[in-house]
């Protein structure tokens, strides 16, 4: 309301009033009514309209302090926040600049289930063009040394890592000799011991098993007789074993296989 546009009439009780109305307004266009009320202010009881600020105020009980009239919750209800007001044209780059996206605004309490519902995560928003390497946390480590729980690995580093693991675990080629170690740590030793008299014989491995001998197989060979003789294991350890077979004066060969692990 401005005195320039409203012709105020004199009131019998003092001040001025709007013609045809009953509300009496006191108006001062030169000086402040008091320290809390500026010039160019209409006053009606405890209701003020400051034409300089273009805002309504109320006075406290002592009428020495003015209080701005705020818009209540009802004024910002869903019905008043329309699609037109939040259209793309109104959401400018300046409004969503980094300086305006503060930690407080993206706190956990503000990221609700409703805001991240499936309906709001559209194909267009997660299209390939929008998901770039620059926006992802990744590592290109052939040995996966960092063991990160927050980064993804590149295709090349995954391939290199798997190839290295396969190569490390592959079984080496057997090149002869008493012992062969497989990729998984299993060790197999083999050999033979030929004797000509009845006795207990000791076979000592070229290299002892690092941990233990877990199995020992013996088989006797005697080609000059059809009589079967039992080949017996007398003792065994990670470094040697003893065997016995009664065969008189005939030549007897004991073939053996020992199994252990690293």
Outline of this structure?
This protein has 262 residues and is mostly beta strands. Helices cover 6% and strands 30% of the residues. The strands form four sheets. It has a seven-stranded antiparallel β-sheet, with no helix packed on it. It has a four-stranded antiparallel β-sheet with strand order 10-11-16-13, with no helix packed on it. Strands 12-15-14 form a three-stranded antiparallel β-sheet, with no helix packed on it.
Could you walk me through the main structural features you see in this protein, from its secondary elements to its overall organization?
The protein has one helix at 155-169, and strands spanning 9-10, 16-17, 24-28, 41-44, 47-50, 55-59, 66-68, 138-139, 152-153, 179-181, 186-195, 199-204, 213-221, 232-236, 240-245, 252-261. Among the domains are: 9-68, no CATH class; 179-261, Sandwich (Immunoglobulin-like), CATH 2.60.40. Mean pLDDT is 74; it is low at 1-11 and 13-37. 6% of the residues lie in helices and 30% in strands. The protein has a 7-stranded antiparallel β-sheet, with no helix packed on it. A 4-stranded antiparallel β-sheet has the order 10-11-16-13, with no helix packed on it. The chain has a 3-stranded antiparallel β-sheet with strand order 12-15-14, with no helix packed on it. By secondary structure, the chain is mainly β. It is built from 1 helix and 16 strands.
């Amino acid at each position: 309301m401005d005195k320039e546009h409203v012709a105020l009439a004199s009131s019998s009780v003092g001040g001025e009033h709007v013609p045809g109305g009953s509300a009496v307004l006191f108006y001062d266009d030169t000086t402040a009514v008091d320290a809390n009320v500026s010039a160019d202010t209409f006053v009606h009881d405890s209701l003020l309209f400051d034409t300089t600020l273009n805002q309504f105020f109320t006075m406290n009980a002592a009428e020495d302090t003015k209080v701005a009239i705020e818009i209540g919750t009802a004024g910002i209800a869903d019905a008043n926040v329309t699609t037109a007001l939040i259209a793309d044209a109104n959401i400018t780059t300046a409004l969503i600049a980094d300086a305006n996206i503060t930690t407080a605004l993206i706190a956990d309490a503000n990221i609700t289930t409703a805001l991240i519902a499936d309906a709001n995560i559209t194909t267009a928003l997660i299209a390939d063009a929008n998901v770039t390497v620059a926006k992802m946390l990744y590592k290109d480590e052939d040995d996966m040394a960092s063991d990160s729980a927050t980064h993804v690995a590149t295709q090349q580093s995954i391939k290199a890592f798997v190839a290295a693991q396969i190569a490390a675990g592959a079984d080496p080629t057997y090149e002869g000799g008493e012992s062969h170690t497989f990729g998984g740590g299993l060790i197999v030793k083999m050999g033979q011991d030929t004797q000509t008299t009845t006795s207990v014989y000791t076979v000592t491995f070229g290299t002892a098993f690092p941990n233990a001998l877990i199995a020992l197989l013996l088989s006797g060979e005697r080609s000059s007789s059809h009589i079967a003789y039992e080949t017996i294991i007398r003792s065994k350890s990670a470094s040697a074993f003893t065997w016995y077979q009664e065969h008189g004066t005939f030549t007897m060969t004991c073939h053996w296989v020992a199994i252990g692990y690293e």
